[in-house]
Amino acid sequence: MRRPEVDLAGVAVVTGAGSGIGRATAQRLAGLGAKVHAVDVDEAAAHALADEIAGSGGRAVAHRVDVADAEAVEALAATVFEQDGGVDVLHNNAGIGHAGPVDETTLEDWRRIVEINLMGAVHGIHAFVPRMLEQGRPAHVVNTASALGLMPGVELAPYSTTKYALVGLSQSLSAELEPRGIGVTALCPGVISTAIVERTTVRGGMAARKARTVDFYRRRGASPDVVADAVVDAIRKRRVIQPVPASHVYPGWIAGRISTRLGLATARLTRRLIVGRP
Question: Is residue 159 flagged as an active site residue?
Answer without folding.
Answer: yes
